[in-house]
Fold each of these.
Amino acid sequence: MLKKNRREDILKAAIGIFSQKGYHDTRISDIIKPANIARGTFYLYFDHKRQIFDSILNTLLVELDQCIKNIEVGKDRPHPLNQLRGNLTRVFTLLIENPDLGRILLRHATGLDDRVAYTIEDALKLGIKMGLIRECNPKISSYCILGGIKEVIEHFSLTKKGTAEIDAIVEEVLNFGIHGLKNPALPSYFTQKNK
Amino acid sequence: MLKKNRREDILKAAIGIFSQKGYHDTRISDIIKPANIARGTFYLYFDHKRQIFDSILNTLLVELDQCIKNIEVGKDRPHPLNQLRGNLTRVFTLLIENPDLGRILLRHATGLDDRVAYTIEDALKLGIKMGLIRECNPKISSYCILGGIKEVIEHFSLTKKGTAEIDAIVEEVLNFGIHGLKNPALPSYFTQKNK
Amino acid sequence: MLKKNRREDILKAAIGIFSQKGYHDTRISDIIKPANIARGTFYLYFDHKRQIFDSILNTLLVELDQCIKNIEVGKDRPHPLNQLRGNLTRVFTLLIENPDLGRILLRHATGLDDRVAYTIEDALKLGIKMGLIRECNPKISSYCILGGIKEVIEHFSLTKKGTAEIDAIVEEVLNFGIHGLKNPALPSYFTQKNK
Amino acid sequence: MLKKNRREDILKAAIGIFSQKGYHDTRISDIIKPANIARGTFYLYFDHKRQIFDSILNTLLVELDQCIKNIEVGKDRPHPLNQLRGNLTRVFTLLIENPDLGRILLRHATGLDDRVAYTIEDALKLGIKMGLIRECNPKISSYCILGGIKEVIEHFSLTKKGTAEIDAIVEEVLNFGIHGLKNPALPSYFTQKNK
DNA sequence: GATGAATGAGTCTTCATTCAT
DNA sequence: GATGAATGAAGACTCATTCAT
């Protein structure tokens, strides 16, 4: 009907299939059938099978980018933890509410990992300098954080979640990253390495 | 010796290729060439392309299983933390020293995740009951742990590591999981949620 | 004026493309773009891709026909050689000055050859009967003549030529057909077949 | 049966089809059907549709080359005319006896023309210097010769010819090239240009 | 057991032609 | 008449798997 709609229809169909079957097992036929278009029409809007996939990925990355705001420190700014909480909530909401997108992003966005990890690492370094974060290896820690978040999304995006649930998940993840799992009532374990 | 070797040769070649190219982009030709066998010979040892891949995965899972020992609590047992440390070290060593295996495992072992996460979850529940671990959501936390470990392996298996390095990585990951990132000198942040 | 122009525009564009790319490598898109028309418009003026090509060929054949005048013998007629010279000059001029047309004609006008050769053959027979032409096999000779002319046009239509140049080429071709290449100072070679 | 045979079978089938339908209208199916092979088998022997075609063309050019021997002048050498006659006879025999090859060569060997014409031109220049050939424009004349030969082959390769017939054709072509068509009893026409 | 030539189902992509607006 | 989005038949090429030797 509307011109823009055709492209959107195809994209919508493609996202669904790609997220279920992955890139390789998705056939052009799998896309055009639910999109209700002819084979040739597909190639009117996309040059390659690869191109539509990359196009989807790109859109995702842009949306993801919009979820993440730089954490700024200042007296008129919310507490860094709350800024972080906001970022996490937005990302989780995007990916858990659009599980297809989430799966595609998590499984195929090679190269994205390192970029994100690097950003986290920088934040950690700043946190250490500011005394908010304990002395740690920021590189290794950044991969721990990123991995944890990815895994939680991967798992929890399988079933739809409401806002409250997402908030609870975010809170738990935050808590994990900040306090770890040790019972705070106990003394540090770490004198016992060689026993 | 001879018979067994053929199968091993093929497996070895396949592991290398699968880990580099992934399942889909690996051709039978890619496997038989470095394995120095004829095309038909491949099918004497494996029924399908899929089967050799699953076979590799299975071997990996067995090896992985052997790395992980149930954590037992008792006065004649090492501190649970040290048992955990041992498990982690063995897993990291296996996967970082065999990066090909590691990559295959991490990228393709769908379904493994949930199983492992479930094991972790159980351990967490026990830890909570024993007072070693703070009150937390054990399911979410287990995914945080698992994801963190996976991401660290994925990243650090790209370059060979020595024992000392592996130990350091393990220590950092442990520390992250146990203490989190908060500077212990600070009071808990978590009163400030709504600011 | 307008209506006719559309068709002419398309034809002009098509001639250029066909002569450069040949029939098979020419796409409808290649034609409609320089013709500044929509895809559907093309099919208002031509039924098929093949039809526009044939149409071009037909126009060419008509033009070619107009170049060639029957050679008439009579005391009030120019010498047959000059009539022939006139024909050749007109044909060469047409095709060398319109290299696109020339190329299309030479490469694709299957079936034209035999018709033209037949005309030449008839002329040769007449010439023999009149004593102007030596006893020869008129069929074979007609193909020699036709082929020579075609090859010369094919080659020399690659670069624009002026009237003087065309005249010179015509003269040389005529000379070749009439006198052959033998140095007239020599006796006939043809006693030496078996040496 | 024999290993070499498969490739030959495919080539033979391809030559037949290509010569009838030309490159573009020949489908892989057209080739594999008479060759009695499966679709995939074709690609075992040739990389592309284009490659088998080029391969055929190349073989042709080699065979053609073997037909043509440099004309050498010397008292212990046959008369140049007879050497020329030999070349022509061999070329005509090859192409007329293998009409499929002939058609492919004539229609598709772009670039061959100019090379051959150049060889002829050189021979003509030598002949002029030696006084065997009259003063003429050797470039234009070479195209006349080449074109004549091509056209005769094109036409006469449509029907099988015996040795005697080929000899007769060669003789007529030679005669045409050497003596032209003028009745030798007449004086030169070429004083009458402007009448 | 070993071989590797042969198979053919399956996939992407192209492009002449149509047709609703 | 004009448009250009839509169509789908058709073709080149791939590659896991088979099988005769």
Note: Chains A and C do not touch (no CB pair under 8 Å).
Amino acid sequence: MTIGDAVGTTQPRLAQASIADDIGLLLAKLHAVGSVRNNRALADVQLRERSYSVLRLACSGLEPTQRELAEFLSLDPSQIVALVDELERRGLVVREQGRTDRRQKIVLGTPEGERIHAQALAAVRASERDQLAALDDEEEATLRALLRRALWH
Amino acid sequence: MTIGDAVGTTQPRLAQASIADDIGLLLAKLHAVGSVRNNRALADVQLRERSYSVLRLACSGLEPTQRELAEFLSLDPSQIVALVDELERRGLVVREQGRTDRRQKIVLGTPEGERIHAQALAAVRASERDQLAALDDEEEATLRALLRRALWH
DNA sequence: TATTGTTATACTCTATAACTATA
DNA sequence: TATAGTTATAGAGTATAACAATA
């Protein structure tokens, strides 16, 4: 058995516990379940949640440096190295020297990277719609807005 | 450097990317940042987020079986074994044989467990208030409700 | 035959420190 | 002196399979 098997879980007995009001636990659970869903959805394009998010930003047009990727994704810079290494090895991104600071490396999607990115994005979107099936469009937008505000106040 | 250093992060340049609308990434980031906060808050009582959540349910009065803990916390039953082992070793919980099914083990908080639990709960509450400082009471309640509905529809 | 708890193992993710090259 | 990227390593979290006791 594994987390994935709990993806379709409905109201268990313990959900009545006051613990179910712990924001931290709600986030942990929703994230855990969502990760499994996303990773499954991304398996087709041989990506995982983390490599996907790096590719996503590399293909955003914002020309992120590795440092910015680390900060934005809440990952350590050393982890970004490994993720970019893998994407680069697969020909999905390239490292370019920073325009003004030669220490920086900008991570950019290649045409092949863009192609995989488009597929991955569609898969993740479907996965999210699935996960939030219980919420209508307005509620989903509210959730998104609240999460954003909690992060970047 | 580590995730923790991003705890106080405000509006980075990349937040404008459409990626910042990915519910999955918002959850991953908020959970990552929240985990660091919670684990720091729990360090005083020598707990981590996961052992805390097991102790929390053991002290809930709901008399959960290990199987129920696994399902509710989205963890594998084999992981629950290790977490309960540690809490039991520290004298914070005990395993009792199930009332009707002798295969089951019910996890219950001891008096000492209740004491530590009360401390831990207060620490986590403070940590959450901190993390969601940008939201007012009503917004926080809305967030809580939406997360709950997304999980147990 | 199926389920609960358990043990074991491999893999992914996270934390930390030290190094290099530029600034 | 500080910062961006890199390497290395240890610890925490996750995935999977197999087993004994009980249903």
Note: Chain B touches chain A through 70 residues (CB under 8 Å).
Amino acid sequence: MFENIIKNVSRFINISTGEEKFFTDLLTCQTVPKKTVLLREGEICQFEGYIQKGCLRMYCLDDKGVEVTILFAIEDWWISDIASFQDQVPSKLYIETLEDSEIYILTPATKEKLLQEIPKFERVFRMLVQRNLSTLQNRLVSTIARTASDRYLEFIRVYPTIPQRVAQYYIASYLGVSKEFVSTIRKRLASKGK
Amino acid sequence: MFENIIKNVSRFINISTGEEKFFTDLLTCQTVPKKTVLLREGEICQFEGYIQKGCLRMYCLDDKGVEVTILFAIEDWWISDIASFQDQVPSKLYIETLEDSEIYILTPATKEKLLQEIPKFERVFRMLVQRNLSTLQNRLVSTIARTASDRYLEFIRVYPTIPQRVAQYYIASYLGVSKEFVSTIRKRLASKGK
DNA sequence: CGCGGGTTTGATGATGCTCAAGCCCGGTGG
DNA sequence: CCACCGGGCTTGAGCATCATCAAACCCGCG
């Protein structure tokens, strides 16, 4: 049941069998149907979730109310609005499932307990945030410096399974282009040899 | 001498006078002239620095070798390539001074000592990374969803002192537009009232 | 006085948006 | 079994934004 998440945190720290149990006992498993909104703007994020199964996305609304997708998250990823979760302040983000999903949840209380009991988990969460930061830095540079077409190719290269799982207009809102333009990009790529 | 940095970390944790001393004893002060490169691509980042005085920027090169500014950092900011610093892997980034600067430096060794001796500093660094992450998220959304003109206005609103301190083409490379276009943006804003 | 880094200006063209229409396809009800 | 419906994808015309290139300009400084 918990092999995946154990393997996930074991990339950063070594944990004993006893610690494993303490950790997994703190988790609550949540089964969430497709198209469920887990967090919306103005709410305070009460979870930090590990995705055992499924697909979610995090997004926000721009000035004109248009959705901008911050990230897609699939199996073996963590998802949360960490700023809202940490400081218990209202979020500016939305998190929703795109498929039926199973998520292991830490709440502020259980995360606190975990860090009290096994302080080396600090390292896990710091690494997760840092990894996030690096990814986001790369994406910013990509967004600034490359054409939409290049970003599309990069996306399907780095996340080859996601285009098969989510609607194309979500990818558009991730790449920062209109859904129509993703369509023309695909057409051009298809004609130009593949 | 160390009032500023003490005040900075005190936003996140309370520290005793003894802890203050332990902390500041670990810092080495570095005086760096303008236009000095502190980190370049391929090197391993050996510092996490608090800026006591001066102005720096972090940037990387895109596919075509064009500079993309990731951030400007002035008094009371921290700067490092945290991914390279943490994992001791080669950096993809550059960090350079734009003015004569004074920086308080933690090395991997002294940071390690600090966290061993006063574990609550874990919190400080986690908060710094998280704050970075939120800022970067906002900027990504801005870059995707707003026009260059809006981003320029946002920039001078959020960082009013920076345009006075750095050349305009650095700001262009931060906003993700050509230096010429920043010029036309300014002209338009100047004519349209304001 | 001339030099050099930084900024401005203008012409031309690519990139990507908006709007409007049509298409494809799976699901649902008659 | 078929007709219809609706969500998602495609297509195309016209337009805004922004890049590129080349030239001129500004100003502090040796």
Note: The longest helix of chain A spans residues 121-145.
Amino acid sequence: MVLPDTRTKVLDAAERLFAENGYRGTSVRAITNLAGANLAAVAYHFGSKAGLMAAVARRVIEPITTAQHARLDEVLVRDADPGIADLVEAFVGPLYDEMPAHDAGGARRSRLIMAILGDPAEEARSWAGQDEAAVRERFLSAFARALPGLAAPELWFRMRGILAVTAVDRVEVHHRPTPNCSAGAGEEAKRWALTFLTAAMSAPARGTVR
Amino acid sequence: MVLPDTRTKVLDAAERLFAENGYRGTSVRAITNLAGANLAAVAYHFGSKAGLMAAVARRVIEPITTAQHARLDEVLVRDADPGIADLVEAFVGPLYDEMPAHDAGGARRSRLIMAILGDPAEEARSWAGQDEAAVRERFLSAFARALPGLAAPELWFRMRGILAVTAVDRVEVHHRPTPNCSAGAGEEAKRWALTFLTAAMSAPARGTVR
DNA sequence: GTCTATAAAAGGATAGAC
DNA sequence: GTCTATCCTTTTATAGAC
């Protein structure tokens, strides 16, 4: 068993605190305290607080985009013109599989992504990185082929809808209405999301018709 | 023409800056500077920065919840057992009508709501207030009647989906993929949302079946 | 690589004059 | 109601010893 080095300990602590309190709500001091490291370690290993956030975001997002690429590859091998359900599954599936809600780390990473997406700072855009943009472009093209009646702006609207639903899921944006209605666990929530989003994406275009 | 008093000027400036930079990203100094008011005005009129945020949130949210209640009332008068499309329209419609994207103020208030929902702070929960919770409960019951096959947790999942899609709409959560694919304007975006969400809410339950 | 110490700035809040 | 002046805390970043 290898003990984590300081760099990794700081990264772990930052992931947790950024997820819980957001970027601006987390101080470098709180991170290094939790990590059992020195305040100066952040500057040494990551240059600055922003550099640390970028590193945290990269570590969380990379496995997801990798899985999304792989799933889309599989789908396209099976069928050059895949259906909506397959595309939705290839895009959304990895978000659940890589961040299972029943796992503490998964829920934490999910909250972190929400914190990144919800951050109004311009900087936050760059945290998501180019991986994420590339994946989105690929899926956008695939959906455009599967939904020929849909104009680009409406397709883009729907794509954001997918991102919104999956990002908000498992994040308590409000108090739960009743205690038993908390977020679904693992596979259940994934199935709900796939049902919800496949139906939504399959809706006929309404771009200009009344 | 009545000139706005200091209280209103501060409220306006705060609404704008909170929307653009979030609660934590906005200093009281920046607000009073933009308002052309004195730093101490915030303490005098609102008690504290948090009190100011609560006042801003109330002013934005109240007209929306009022409209949602009214629209649901209308729907229930016409039909004691309304369909999914009517319920979705009654819930989502006011979010677009009260915050038109083509209007600068509408887009700003939309971003503000996103900033509130996305804020990880516990405090942020209370900003949305009880109005919003009451509306959600009413619609939850109405949807439950219209979707008898849907268990409570899955219904709650879908309700959050509606909130997610409408909140994220018109907010650039990422860089736009191509310049022409920006957010849809006004009525168009509303129609896209109603189409997308009505289809999603109408999907058959998948809670436990395979 | 890790630490102490400190710089330098920005933040929220408030006392008290007017 | 509005203003000035100031207090006190917290923040990021860095210089320099070890």
Note: Residues 6, 37-41, 44-45 of chain A lie near DNA strand C (CB under 10 Å from a C1').
